# Entry
Amino acid sequence: MLKKIEKYFKFSERNTNWITEIRAGFTTYLTMAYILFVNPVILKDAGVPFNACVVGTALSAGLTSILMGLVANFPLALAAGMGLNSVLTYSIVIGQGVSWQVGMGLIFLDGLIVLILVLVGLREAVMKAIPVPLRHAIAVGIGMFLAYIGLLHAGIVIIDKNTLLPSPGNFSDISTIISSCGVFITAVFVVLKIKGAIINGILITAFLSFLAGLSKLPETINMPDFSSAGALDIMGALKLSLIPSLFAFIIVDFFDTLGTVTAIGYQANLVDSQGRIEKLKAILGIDAIGAMLGGFFGASSNTSYIESAAGIMEGGRTGVTAIVVGLLFLLSIIIAPVACLIASQATAPALVIIGFLMMQAITYIDFEQLDTAIPAFVIILTMPFTYSISHGIGYGFIVYTILKMAKGQFKDVHPLMYIISLIFAVYFLVGK
# Structure
């Protein structure tokens, strides 16, 4: 029986084993566990009950990640998307004065429409239309984005409240000191090629954070609250005034995932000679279903997590990695308060090191081929600075299309790239 399971997940073909996959799953979960608390804090402002949102976040992430592993056999975990939850809370619910149930209905519709686009083959066709150098640039840009998030979580870089610009962190702060130590510890493990480098770095840094009082054991453990499940209002989300917001959600969901899947596929070396990912339609379809589940459980849109790169670094190459993440999220319904021991200071070093490792894809970009190198540079540059994967992709695509047209190489551009660039241009001009 075990051999059949290993054959299904292609253990031999992908040169992996149970210990590696389970370790990779634990590592990915630890880098994502923060969402169990951050998501409810944000959605609480929209009116979603806190404890119910913790349960909804864990349920939707667990089910979607398990689905990704079982069906697509891809080491990609999913959970409520940061950024989308803030837009839902402050721009939609508070900004437009609708209920959180209507907001979740909007998220459900977003996932449903994107799923339809997957089923008709559009989402997969778009991914195949992206030139290979730009795919590598997306992976590098996401690596930079991930490292930047890590620096912010570590306190090594802070956002100045007066200028709203990044500034050097305060190294007299114990949390910044511990995070910096974590970066060195994780880097040493990686350089020495120690197995479990990322997860060991997380656990050691978490222990130091605990000793410093940055994380504490929970005083109480609440019973699971399932009240937000099924509370969405789909009919209320069909208002004409909400159509622009629905379109914005679709754009972000559509292209964020394309970027993340591309980056993970290249990082895990799960692409063929033409840069194609096996079972791509299944991967993209499950991501869309994740958005629907997020809306159903009152947790905002589930999306593919670039933190999955932490599991890839630990050797995760199959869907077992995603399944382990999913099971841990489901278990978190009961033990969620204990996850607070893994403070952001503990996972930040892992994100920085993973960002560096993802930078390796830059060597595949020919910088002498300027009509693709400049758009690649734009993608790499703008992803972290705009704090948006989809914006970075959009800017790069527009620049690529314009430069090719300027050279008169109209036929070298896939027809879908013209359409996508135009959609992005309209999206940016409208400013939604």
